[in-house]
Amino acid sequence: MNCDELLHLAPLYLSGELASPQRQSCDLHLQSCRECEEILEQQRICDARLVAILGNEVPDHSQIDRVSRYVREHIAATSRSRKQRWLVAGAIAASLIAGIVCAYAWMTSFAVPSSYTAAAQDHWAEVVEHEPRHWRSTPAEMQFLITASGLSSDQVSALAPAGYWLEHAKVCGIAGRRTLHLVFSNGTQQYSLYVRPHRGVKERVRVIRHNAEEVAGFETGRFSALVVTTSTSTQCEELARLAAARL
Amino acid sequence: MGSLADEFERVAIPHTRSLLRFALRLTRDSSAAEDLVQETLLSAWRGFVQLETGTNARAWLFRILINAFHAQHRKQQSSLPTLILTSDLRSASPSPLESLSVLQALEQLAAEQRTVLLLASEEGFTCREIANILAIPIGTVMSRLGRARAAMCRALSPEGIPKRAEKVAP
What we know:
The complex is a heterodimer of chains A (247) and B (170). Chain A has 247 residues and is of the alpha+beta class. Chain A has helices at 3-14, 20-32, 34-54, 61-110, 114-128, 139-148, 153-159, 233-246, and strands at residues 165-174, 177-185, 190-197, 203-210, 213-219, 223-229. Chain A has two domains: 3-109, no CATH class; 114-246, 2-Layer Sandwich (Phosphorylase Kinase, domain 1). In chain A, strands 1-2-3-6-5-4 form a six-stranded antiparallel sheet, sandwiched between helices. The termini of chain A are far apart. In chain B, 65% of the residues lie in helices and 0% in strands. In chain B, helix 2 packs parallel to helix 4 (57-76), helix 3 crosses helix 4 and helix 5 (96-107) crosses helix 8.
Protein backbone atom coordinates (compact mmCIF):
# COMPACT_ATOMS: atom_id res chain seq x y z
CA MET A 1 0.00 0.00 0.00
CA ASN A 2 1.36 3.45 -0.88
CA CYS A 3 0.52 6.84 0.66
CA ASP A 4 -2.13 7.78 -1.93
CA GLU A 5 -3.96 4.51 -1.37
CA LEU A 6 -3.87 5.01 2.36
CA LEU A 7 -5.24 8.55 2.17
CA HIS A 8 -7.96 7.36 -0.17
CA LEU A 9 -9.01 4.73 2.38
CA ALA A 10 -8.54 7.03 5.37
CA PRO A 11 -12.27 7.83 5.88
CA LEU A 12 -13.08 4.11 6.03
CA TYR A 13 -10.04 3.47 8.23
CA LEU A 14 -11.04 6.17 10.72
CA SER A 15 -14.68 5.05 10.85
CA GLY A 16 -13.63 1.43 11.38
CA GLU A 17 -15.33 0.24 8.22
CA LEU A 18 -12.32 -1.42 6.61
CA ALA A 19 -12.22 -5.16 6.31
CA SER A 20 -9.50 -6.85 8.32
CA PRO A 21 -6.93 -7.43 5.49
CA GLN A 22 -7.18 -3.80 4.30
CA ARG A 23 -7.00 -2.53 7.83
CA GLN A 24 -3.88 -4.57 8.44
CA SER A 25 -2.33 -3.17 5.25
CA CYS A 26 -3.09 0.35 6.46
CA ASP A 27 -1.63 -0.42 9.89
CA LEU A 28 1.54 -1.75 8.28
CA HIS A 29 1.87 1.35 6.11
CA LEU A 30 1.28 3.67 9.06
CA GLN A 31 3.96 1.88 11.05
CA SER A 32 6.47 2.67 8.34
CA CYS A 33 5.22 6.12 7.16
CA ARG A 34 5.43 8.86 9.73
CA GLU A 35 3.95 11.42 7.34
CA CYS A 36 0.71 9.47 6.80
CA GLU A 37 0.46 8.69 10.48
CA GLU A 38 0.69 12.39 11.21
CA ILE A 39 -2.01 13.24 8.68
CA LEU A 40 -4.44 10.75 10.15
CA GLU A 41 -3.64 11.90 13.66
CA GLN A 42 -4.33 15.49 12.65
CA GLN A 43 -7.64 14.44 11.11
CA ARG A 44 -8.59 12.68 14.35
CA ILE A 45 -7.72 15.80 16.33
CA CYS A 46 -9.71 18.04 13.96
CA ASP A 47 -12.74 15.75 14.30
CA ALA A 48 -12.41 15.72 18.07
CA ARG A 49 -12.16 19.52 18.20
CA LEU A 50 -15.18 19.83 15.95
CA VAL A 51 -17.22 17.44 18.09
CA ALA A 52 -16.16 19.19 21.28
CA ILE A 53 -17.27 22.56 19.98
CA LEU A 54 -20.45 21.48 18.22
CA GLY A 55 -21.34 19.15 21.07
CA ASN A 56 -22.13 22.19 23.14
CA GLU A 57 -24.87 23.11 20.75
CA VAL A 58 -27.76 21.18 22.21
CA PRO A 59 -31.31 22.01 21.21
CA ASP A 60 -33.14 23.14 24.31
CA HIS A 61 -35.36 20.60 26.04
CA SER A 62 -38.51 22.63 25.54
CA GLN A 63 -37.97 22.45 21.79
CA ILE A 64 -37.39 18.67 21.88
CA ASP A 65 -40.46 18.22 24.07
CA ARG A 66 -42.57 20.43 21.81
CA VAL A 67 -41.66 18.45 18.68
CA SER A 68 -42.10 15.07 20.39
CA ARG A 69 -45.47 16.08 21.83
CA TYR A 70 -46.70 17.38 18.47
CA VAL A 71 -45.71 14.14 16.73
CA ARG A 72 -47.26 11.96 19.45
CA GLU A 73 -50.52 13.90 19.29
CA HIS A 74 -50.61 13.63 15.52
CA ILE A 75 -49.98 9.86 15.69
CA ALA A 76 -52.70 9.41 18.31
CA ALA A 77 -55.13 11.42 16.19
CA THR A 78 -54.33 9.53 12.99
CA SER A 79 -54.61 6.22 14.85
CA ARG A 80 -58.09 7.21 16.00
CA SER A 81 -59.16 8.39 12.57
CA ARG A 82 -57.61 5.26 11.04
CA LYS A 83 -59.77 3.14 13.36
CA GLN A 84 -62.81 5.18 12.38
CA ARG A 85 -61.95 4.80 8.70
CA TRP A 86 -61.71 1.03 9.17
CA LEU A 87 -65.08 1.01 10.88
CA VAL A 88 -66.67 3.02 8.08
CA ALA A 89 -64.98 0.85 5.47
CA GLY A 90 -66.20 -2.27 7.29
CA ALA A 91 -69.75 -0.93 7.41
CA ILE A 92 -69.65 -0.06 3.72
CA ALA A 93 -68.26 -3.50 2.86
CA ALA A 94 -70.94 -5.20 4.97
CA SER A 95 -73.66 -3.12 3.28
CA LEU A 96 -72.27 -3.99 -0.14
CA ILE A 97 -72.16 -7.69 0.65
CA ALA A 98 -75.71 -7.56 2.04
CA GLY A 99 -76.82 -5.68 -1.08
CA ILE A 100 -75.19 -8.22 -3.38
CA VAL A 101 -76.77 -11.12 -1.46
CA CYS A 102 -80.21 -9.46 -1.61
CA ALA A 103 -79.81 -8.68 -5.29
CA TYR A 104 -78.75 -12.25 -5.99
CA ALA A 105 -81.71 -13.62 -4.03
CA TRP A 106 -84.06 -11.24 -5.82
CA MET A 107 -82.70 -12.17 -9.24
CA THR A 108 -82.77 -15.91 -8.57
CA SER A 109 -86.36 -15.59 -7.40
CA PHE A 110 -87.20 -14.49 -10.92
CA ALA A 111 -85.09 -17.10 -12.62
CA VAL A 112 -87.23 -19.88 -14.07
CA PRO A 113 -86.07 -23.33 -12.95
CA SER A 114 -85.27 -25.64 -15.85
CA SER A 115 -87.87 -28.17 -14.65
CA TYR A 116 -90.67 -25.63 -15.30
CA THR A 117 -89.69 -25.07 -18.92
CA ALA A 118 -89.00 -28.79 -19.47
CA ALA A 119 -92.48 -29.66 -18.13
CA ALA A 120 -94.11 -26.99 -20.30
CA GLN A 121 -92.35 -28.31 -23.42
CA ASP A 122 -93.22 -31.90 -22.52
CA HIS A 123 -96.90 -31.00 -21.98
CA TRP A 124 -97.00 -29.11 -25.28
CA ALA A 125 -95.53 -31.97 -27.25
CA GLU A 126 -97.33 -34.88 -25.60
CA VAL A 127 -100.69 -33.44 -24.55
CA VAL A 128 -101.36 -30.47 -26.81
CA GLU A 129 -99.69 -31.73 -29.99
CA HIS A 130 -100.46 -35.38 -29.22
CA GLU A 131 -97.11 -36.60 -30.34
CA PRO A 132 -97.16 -40.38 -30.18
CA ARG A 133 -96.04 -41.71 -26.81
CA HIS A 134 -96.41 -44.98 -25.02
CA TRP A 135 -99.09 -43.95 -22.53
CA ARG A 136 -100.45 -46.23 -19.83
CA SER A 137 -104.23 -45.96 -19.98
CA THR A 138 -105.67 -49.01 -18.29
CA PRO A 139 -106.37 -48.75 -14.52
CA ALA A 140 -103.95 -51.62 -13.78
CA GLU A 141 -101.10 -50.10 -15.78
CA MET A 142 -101.67 -46.68 -14.27
CA GLN A 143 -101.92 -48.07 -10.74
CA PHE A 144 -98.60 -49.84 -11.23
CA LEU A 145 -96.89 -46.57 -12.19
CA ILE A 146 -98.62 -44.66 -9.40
CA THR A 147 -97.63 -47.16 -6.74
CA ALA A 148 -94.08 -47.29 -8.07
CA SER A 149 -93.90 -43.52 -7.59
CA GLY A 150 -94.88 -43.76 -3.91
CA LEU A 151 -98.50 -42.70 -4.36
CA SER A 152 -101.83 -44.50 -4.04
CA SER A 153 -104.70 -44.55 -6.57
CA ASP A 154 -107.06 -42.85 -4.11
CA GLN A 155 -104.51 -40.13 -3.47
CA VAL A 156 -104.15 -39.55 -7.21
CA SER A 157 -107.94 -39.45 -7.73
CA ALA A 158 -108.13 -36.73 -5.06
CA LEU A 159 -105.47 -34.62 -6.76
CA ALA A 160 -107.83 -33.44 -9.49
CA PRO A 161 -110.87 -31.22 -8.98
CA ALA A 162 -114.40 -32.51 -9.34
CA GLY A 163 -115.28 -33.43 -12.92
CA TYR A 164 -111.72 -34.38 -13.83
CA TRP A 165 -110.40 -37.90 -14.04
CA LEU A 166 -107.05 -39.48 -14.71
CA GLU A 167 -106.90 -40.09 -18.44
CA HIS A 168 -103.47 -41.66 -18.82
CA ALA A 169 -100.04 -41.74 -17.31
CA LYS A 170 -96.43 -42.45 -18.14
CA VAL A 171 -92.99 -42.06 -16.68
CA CYS A 172 -90.82 -39.44 -18.28
CA GLY A 173 -87.65 -37.49 -17.61
CA ILE A 174 -88.07 -33.86 -16.60
CA ALA A 175 -84.86 -31.91 -16.25
CA GLY A 176 -83.00 -35.19 -16.04
CA ARG A 177 -85.16 -36.62 -13.24
CA ARG A 178 -87.50 -39.58 -13.38
CA THR A 179 -91.00 -38.11 -13.07
CA LEU A 180 -94.54 -39.49 -13.15
CA HIS A 181 -96.58 -37.68 -15.79
CA LEU A 182 -100.31 -37.76 -15.04
CA VAL A 183 -102.82 -36.31 -17.50
CA PHE A 184 -106.21 -35.32 -16.11
CA SER A 185 -109.17 -34.47 -18.29
CA ASN A 186 -112.77 -33.29 -17.88
CA GLY A 187 -113.68 -34.34 -21.41
CA THR A 188 -112.94 -30.99 -23.00
CA GLN A 189 -109.81 -29.79 -21.21
CA GLN A 190 -106.64 -31.55 -20.18
CA TYR A 191 -103.87 -30.67 -17.87
CA SER A 192 -100.65 -32.38 -16.78
CA LEU A 193 -99.40 -33.08 -13.30
CA TYR A 194 -95.75 -34.04 -13.03
CA VAL A 195 -94.85 -35.63 -9.70
CA ARG A 196 -91.64 -37.06 -8.34
CA PRO A 197 -90.65 -38.03 -4.82
CA HIS A 198 -88.45 -35.33 -3.31
CA ARG A 199 -87.46 -34.86 0.29
CA GLY A 200 -86.84 -31.24 1.05
CA VAL A 201 -88.38 -28.07 2.37
CA LYS A 202 -91.94 -27.12 1.63
CA GLU A 203 -92.25 -24.45 -1.02
CA ARG A 204 -95.43 -22.66 -1.81
CA VAL A 205 -97.00 -22.60 -5.24
CA ARG A 206 -95.19 -20.49 -7.77
CA VAL A 207 -96.71 -19.86 -11.21
CA ILE A 208 -94.85 -18.87 -14.35
CA ARG A 209 -95.89 -18.58 -17.95
CA HIS A 210 -93.96 -20.39 -20.65
CA ASN A 211 -95.15 -19.75 -24.21
CA ALA A 212 -98.84 -20.84 -24.25
CA GLU A 213 -98.63 -22.80 -21.01
CA GLU A 214 -99.01 -21.86 -17.40
CA VAL A 215 -96.77 -23.84 -15.10
CA ALA A 216 -97.34 -23.98 -11.33
CA GLY A 217 -94.73 -25.69 -9.21
CA PHE A 218 -94.60 -26.57 -5.53
CA GLU A 219 -92.85 -28.80 -3.01
CA THR A 220 -94.64 -30.62 -0.22
CA GLY A 221 -91.62 -31.89 1.63
CA ARG A 222 -92.20 -35.39 0.22
CA PHE A 223 -93.02 -34.63 -3.39
CA SER A 224 -92.03 -32.10 -5.98
CA ALA A 225 -94.81 -31.36 -8.47
CA LEU A 226 -95.60 -29.22 -11.49
CA VAL A 227 -99.01 -28.50 -12.97
CA VAL A 228 -99.05 -27.50 -16.65
CA THR A 229 -102.12 -26.19 -18.39
CA THR A 230 -103.04 -24.04 -21.35
CA SER A 231 -105.83 -22.38 -19.34
CA THR A 232 -105.43 -19.26 -17.21
CA SER A 233 -102.78 -18.60 -14.58
CA THR A 234 -105.42 -18.53 -11.82
CA GLN A 235 -106.82 -21.87 -12.85
CA CYS A 236 -103.34 -23.33 -13.01
CA GLU A 237 -102.61 -22.06 -9.51
CA GLU A 238 -105.88 -23.46 -8.15
CA LEU A 239 -105.10 -26.85 -9.64
CA ALA A 240 -101.63 -26.73 -8.06
CA ARG A 241 -103.00 -25.69 -4.64
CA LEU A 242 -105.47 -28.51 -4.68
CA ALA A 243 -102.78 -31.04 -5.54
CA ALA A 244 -100.39 -29.55 -2.96
CA ALA A 245 -103.01 -29.95 -0.23
CA ARG A 246 -103.43 -33.62 -1.00
CA LEU A 247 -99.89 -34.77 -1.74
CA MET B 1 -51.90 4.15 20.86
CA GLY B 2 -51.55 0.91 18.99
CA SER B 3 -48.46 -1.31 18.87
CA LEU B 4 -47.15 0.37 15.71
CA ALA B 5 -47.28 3.74 17.45
CA ASP B 6 -45.48 2.23 20.44
CA GLU B 7 -42.80 0.86 18.15
CA PHE B 8 -42.42 4.27 16.49
CA GLU B 9 -42.13 5.86 19.92
CA ARG B 10 -39.33 3.43 20.74
CA VAL B 11 -37.49 3.56 17.40
CA ALA B 12 -37.87 7.10 16.08
CA ILE B 13 -38.78 9.59 18.79
CA PRO B 14 -35.48 9.18 20.70
CA HIS B 15 -33.68 10.67 17.67
CA THR B 16 -35.60 13.96 17.91
CA ARG B 17 -32.68 15.64 19.64
CA SER B 18 -30.02 14.81 17.03
CA LEU B 19 -32.49 15.52 14.21
CA LEU B 20 -33.19 18.93 15.68
CA ARG B 21 -29.49 19.66 16.06
CA PHE B 22 -28.81 18.76 12.45
CA ALA B 23 -31.95 20.55 11.20
CA LEU B 24 -30.76 23.67 12.97
CA ARG B 25 -27.51 23.56 11.01
CA LEU B 26 -29.42 23.10 7.78
CA THR B 27 -32.09 25.76 8.26
CA ARG B 28 -30.21 28.33 10.36
CA ASP B 29 -33.50 29.02 12.07
CA SER B 30 -34.85 27.50 15.26
CA SER B 31 -38.53 27.45 14.30
CA ALA B 32 -37.74 26.29 10.76
CA ALA B 33 -35.66 23.47 12.26
CA GLU B 34 -38.56 22.53 14.49
CA ASP B 35 -40.94 22.46 11.53
CA LEU B 36 -38.48 20.40 9.51
CA VAL B 37 -38.12 17.80 12.26
CA GLN B 38 -41.87 17.62 12.76
CA GLU B 39 -42.31 17.08 9.05
CA THR B 40 -39.53 14.49 9.11
CA LEU B 41 -41.06 12.52 11.95
CA LEU B 42 -44.57 12.66 10.49
CA SER B 43 -43.25 11.53 7.14
CA ALA B 44 -41.37 8.75 8.92
CA TRP B 45 -44.58 7.75 10.72
CA ARG B 46 -46.44 7.53 7.42
CA GLY B 47 -43.75 5.26 6.00
CA PHE B 48 -43.00 3.44 9.24
CA VAL B 49 -45.18 0.45 8.41
CA GLN B 50 -42.91 -0.24 5.41
CA LEU B 51 -39.68 0.04 7.38
CA GLU B 52 -38.05 -3.35 7.30
CA THR B 53 -36.80 -4.92 10.50
CA GLY B 54 -33.08 -4.38 10.92
CA THR B 55 -33.02 -1.09 9.00
CA ASN B 56 -30.87 1.60 10.58
CA ALA B 57 -33.68 3.82 11.80
CA ARG B 58 -31.42 6.77 12.61
CA ALA B 59 -29.88 6.81 9.14
CA TRP B 60 -33.36 6.42 7.67
CA LEU B 61 -34.61 9.44 9.67
CA PHE B 62 -31.65 11.58 8.61
CA ARG B 63 -32.29 10.66 5.02
CA ILE B 64 -35.92 11.74 5.34
CA LEU B 65 -34.83 14.96 7.02
CA ILE B 66 -32.33 15.82 4.29
CA ASN B 67 -34.82 14.95 1.55
CA ALA B 68 -37.50 17.05 3.25
CA PHE B 69 -35.09 19.91 3.53
CA HIS B 70 -34.13 19.66 -0.14
CA ALA B 71 -37.82 19.50 -1.11
CA GLN B 72 -38.53 22.67 0.90
CA HIS B 73 -35.46 24.22 -0.51
CA ARG B 74 -36.52 23.52 -4.10
CA LYS B 75 -39.93 25.05 -3.40
CA GLN B 76 -38.37 28.17 -2.00
CA GLN B 77 -35.81 28.29 -4.83
CA SER B 78 -33.25 29.66 -2.49
CA SER B 79 -29.52 29.14 -2.62
CA LEU B 80 -27.81 25.83 -1.89
CA PRO B 81 -28.07 24.72 1.71
CA THR B 82 -25.38 25.94 3.99
CA LEU B 83 -25.04 24.51 7.43
CA ILE B 84 -25.36 26.93 10.27
CA LEU B 85 -22.83 27.16 13.01
CA THR B 86 -24.53 28.51 16.02
CA SER B 87 -22.17 27.73 18.83
CA ASP B 88 -22.43 29.97 21.74
CA LEU B 89 -18.74 30.60 22.06
CA ARG B 90 -19.05 31.93 25.56
CA SER B 91 -20.43 28.67 26.83
CA ALA B 92 -18.22 26.28 24.88
CA SER B 93 -15.63 24.50 26.96
CA PRO B 94 -12.86 24.87 24.35
CA SER B 95 -11.46 28.35 24.30
CA PRO B 96 -13.51 30.92 22.40
CA LEU B 97 -10.63 31.55 20.06
CA GLU B 98 -10.26 27.87 19.25
CA SER B 99 -14.00 27.51 18.76
CA LEU B 100 -14.04 30.45 16.44
CA SER B 101 -11.22 29.07 14.34
CA VAL B 102 -12.87 25.64 14.05
CA LEU B 103 -16.23 27.14 13.14
CA GLN B 104 -14.68 29.46 10.61
CA ALA B 105 -12.86 26.55 9.03
CA LEU B 106 -16.09 24.61 8.88
CA GLU B 107 -17.95 27.55 7.39
CA GLN B 108 -15.40 27.79 4.60
CA LEU B 109 -16.00 24.22 3.46
CA ALA B 110 -18.20 23.52 0.45
CA ALA B 111 -21.75 22.72 1.60
CA GLU B 112 -21.64 19.07 0.49
CA GLN B 113 -18.26 18.55 2.23
CA ARG B 114 -19.59 20.16 5.41
CA THR B 115 -22.71 17.94 5.36
CA VAL B 116 -20.64 14.79 5.02
CA LEU B 117 -18.16 15.90 7.69
CA LEU B 118 -20.90 16.74 10.19
CA LEU B 119 -22.74 13.48 9.52
CA ALA B 120 -19.49 11.57 10.08
CA SER B 121 -17.87 13.52 12.91
CA GLU B 122 -20.75 14.98 14.85
CA GLU B 123 -23.50 12.41 14.19
CA GLY B 124 -21.17 9.42 14.06
CA PHE B 125 -22.46 7.87 10.86
CA THR B 126 -20.23 5.52 8.89
CA CYS B 127 -19.36 6.22 5.27
CA ARG B 128 -21.81 3.55 4.13
CA GLU B 129 -24.59 5.08 6.21
CA ILE B 130 -23.83 8.54 4.85
CA ALA B 131 -23.90 7.16 1.32
CA ASN B 132 -27.30 5.70 2.11
CA ILE B 133 -28.60 8.90 3.71
CA LEU B 134 -27.48 11.15 0.88
CA ALA B 135 -28.15 8.55 -1.83
CA ILE B 136 -24.67 8.97 -3.29
CA PRO B 137 -21.90 6.43 -3.96
CA ILE B 138 -19.66 5.56 -1.05
CA GLY B 139 -16.65 6.64 -3.11
CA THR B 140 -18.13 10.15 -3.28
CA VAL B 141 -18.60 10.13 0.50
CA MET B 142 -14.97 9.09 1.02
CA SER B 143 -13.76 11.72 -1.37
CA ARG B 144 -15.83 14.52 0.20
CA LEU B 145 -14.91 13.44 3.71
CA GLY B 146 -11.21 13.23 2.86
CA ARG B 147 -11.27 16.70 1.31
CA ALA B 148 -13.25 18.15 4.19
CA ARG B 149 -10.88 16.75 6.81
CA ALA B 150 -7.83 17.82 4.86
CA ALA B 151 -9.26 21.34 4.50
CA MET B 152 -10.10 21.52 8.18
CA CYS B 153 -6.62 20.38 9.18
CA ARG B 154 -5.04 22.82 6.72
CA ALA B 155 -7.15 25.68 8.00
CA LEU B 156 -6.53 24.93 11.65
CA SER B 157 -2.84 24.22 11.50
CA PRO B 158 -1.60 25.18 8.06
CA GLU B 159 2.01 24.70 8.91
CA GLY B 160 1.53 21.34 10.62
CA ILE B 161 -0.17 19.42 7.84
CA PRO B 162 1.83 17.98 4.97
CA LYS B 163 0.67 19.17 1.56
CA ARG B 164 0.03 15.59 0.47
CA ALA B 165 -3.06 15.55 2.66
CA GLU B 166 -4.75 17.75 0.07
CA LYS B 167 -4.52 14.99 -2.54
CA VAL B 168 -6.96 12.66 -0.82
CA ALA B 169 -9.80 13.12 -3.24
CA PRO B 170 -9.04 12.13 -6.79
